[in-house]
Design brief:
7 strands
Length: about 250
């Protein structure tokens, strides 16, 4: 029974689901305590003190009381609320959902520290809401960096199998990225060299290069990123289907 029963942390609201007549279960990605699920009592009542503060895409300062399976929210203050900005644009909204769903999938072990993932998500939501970069580029950069944090960094220049200096013209998802002619498995893709340059730029944060990329390279790159993500997660991110649908309508 050791340890304090209450704790305080910064968090991003990933998801909110109904519980009973007035409560919600809030899924949070916290800065220091990893992913946490907590009951927010009475938040669906109009008289609730902090109902509107626990909406998805909101960054909060939250106090929680530890429980056996679910913690309980006892106090919450808003640090940044990105939901309104994202909801005003369907394209941003679909990308936002893909961000939080991916973050939840990469933090499946509850209460396991995930500070890097938390900071990455906060930065991506802020960038998205402020429209600092093209939304699909923000998403692909986030996905690549989330994979890297989880230990699945893709190689876009040197050979992923033997480290032979690149650039190389072949790309293989299972091998870990770019592959040299000697290591190239059958069925490897042969993406445009500029596509691999774009993905490398998104992974390292070279936004100047990324913003200069052509639409065809962005489309091809997004396909490679989605396939790479699905390979390592073993099942896809549902929200990405809505992102792809939105892209197809804009073409």
């Amino acid at each position: 029974m050791g340890g304090a029963k209450s704790y305080r942390d910064e968090a991003v609201v990933l998801r909110a689901t109904k519980l009973g007549e007035a409560d919600r279960i809030i899924t949070l990605l916290t800065r220091h305590h990893g992913r946490v699920r907590a009951v927010a009592k009475g938040v669906r009542r109009t008289s609730s003190r902090f109902g509107g503060r626990l909406e998805p895409f909101t960054c909060v300062d939250v106090q929680l009381h530890r429980g056996r399976s679910l913690d309980t929210v006892t106090q919450v203050d808003v640090l940044d609320a990105y939901g309104q900005a994202l909801a005003a644009d369907y394209g941003l909204y679909t990308v936002g959902h893909a961000l939080v769903e991916t973050a939840e999938r990469f933090t499946e072990v509850e209460r396991e520290s995930a500070t890097q993932q938390y900071l990455l998500l906060v930065g991506a939501l802020r960038t998205l809401a402020r429209r600092e970069h093209d939304a699909p580029l923000v998403l692909d950069a986030f996905l690549l960096r989330s994979l890297a944090i989880a230990g699945y960094a893709a190689s876009f220049a040197d050979c992923a199998k033997c480290a032979e200096p690149g650039p190389h013209s072949s790309f293989n998802i299972a091998a870990g990225g770019a592959v040299c002619p000697v290591c190239r498995p059958p069925g490897s893709a042969a993406p445009d060299p500029q596509t691999l340059e774009l993905l490398a730029a998104l992974l390292t944060g070279d936004w100047a290069l990324a913003e200069e990329s052509e639409d065809r390279c962005r489309t091809e790159g997004s396909g490679l990123v989605a396939a790479f993500l699905q390979w390592h997660l073993e099942r896809g991110i549902r929200s990405l289907q809505h992102v792809e649908r939105e892209r197809s309508l804009l073409r």
